[in-house]
Design goal:
Shape: elongated
CATH superfamily of the largest domain: Endonuclease Chain A
Helix content: 40-55%
Number of strands: 9
Order of helices and strands: HHHHEEHEHEHHEHEEEEH
Distance between the termini: 57 Å
Strand content: 15-25%
Largest sheet: 7 strands, mixed
Number of helices: 10
CATH class of the largest domain: Alpha Beta
CATH topology of the largest domain: Endonuclease, Chain A
Length: about 250
Amino acid sequence: MNDQSAQKLASVFSLSEYEAKLYISALDMSEATVSDLSSRAGIPRTAVYPPLKQLVAKGFISPLKSKGKRILYRAIEPKFLEHIFDRKRLDLTELIGQFAGSITSGSGEVWVRYFEGRDGLQMAGDIFLSESKSKLWKTFENIVNVEKVIGTSRFDDYVKRRVAKGIVGRVILPAREHTAWVKDFLASSEKNLNEYCLVSPETYPLEATLAVAGEWVFVESATKKPFALLIKNGSLARTVESIHDMVWDRFKR
């Protein structure tokens, strides 16, 4: 595995660079000593012990019986990494429950979060999908920018998860010349549980995505510096929904 694989592993499991390199190095050997791991990972021997201790504690590497005075180490098989991830998820769920029981918002009426970057857009979208209890999303969408910044595979996967929850999308789009992917996507409206309304891009220059579902409002700007906003507020949500209804009723005839 290359350095990119180590970086991805470190990111997913919140490992240090040395921890990720040691685990990947241990995978290449059925059994390894500290010296073996040091050599294979390219880490000074004296720097191996702290990250190795952490990997053992986290379940990524197991110490075996001593070979003389040396302890041998073996990496957990990759197919079992999912169990480690599930354990982290359970710990997080328990922690969230503890926080929820002790922390409440000041007024209980407004919840606002800002998300930055491409991964931030995905996280905000995932929360919107998870928290929304409405079976109808009303959206102003600039699907061209979404295609460029988020990517078609991520967007298609998101739509599949929305459809799996039985959520219908009522989408207002600017009428313009679209790419082949956008045309195919629009043609699959029935499968994607989408209804579309095309509006003049001059009258309605939709440069960002704005969606409302129940008390939740989702704002996404998929530009060179992408960001997203998630807002939970009933008054704001009803206002956005009313604006959407006015535009929809005007053009969807």
